Amino acid sequence: MKRDSKLSGVLHVLLHMAEIDAPVTSETLARMMQTNPVVVRRVMAGLRAQGYVRSDKGHGGGWTLARDLESLTLLDIHRAIGAPPLFAIGHRNEAPGCAVEAAVNEALDSRLHQAEALLLSSFGEITLASLSRNFHRRLAERRAATTSGDHHGH
Predict the structure, then answer these.
(1) Fewer CB atoms inside 10 A, N or C side of the chain?
(2) What is the DSSP secondary-structure string of 71-117?
(3) Where is coiled-coil annotated (predicted)?
(4) Is residue 30 part of a domain?
């Protein structure tokens, strides 16, 4: 089953952008996401519409963050990219004539809606600033391991 990695990719790019103190072109972001610049522009347009990023055209132009990382959550970004489905589980038949299948659909729907609500609620509690702090902690740990001679990352 193919997983949708759009949210992960966008979060990755936004955190990189936070580390760069200059506008970043769609071409540079596309290399980071291993995709086409047109795809990047489409995704970033959704973020721009929400006021999360801005773009400047021309020489020296590109994308920049328009909001502080502390004010952005995973939920904000998930919604800005079109709220892709969180789960790949679905019904075998959306309008079953079989009572057994209808019972299965009802049970799945109920539990999936509960799980989705819980997951989205937790997305609202995670800021991009907390992801950035996690990144910086991991980077410091790697540097410390490298300078102490521990090349295994332990």
Answers:
(1) N
(2) G-BHHHHHHHTT---S-----S-SS-SSHHHHHHHHHHHHHHHHHHH
(3) none
(4) yes
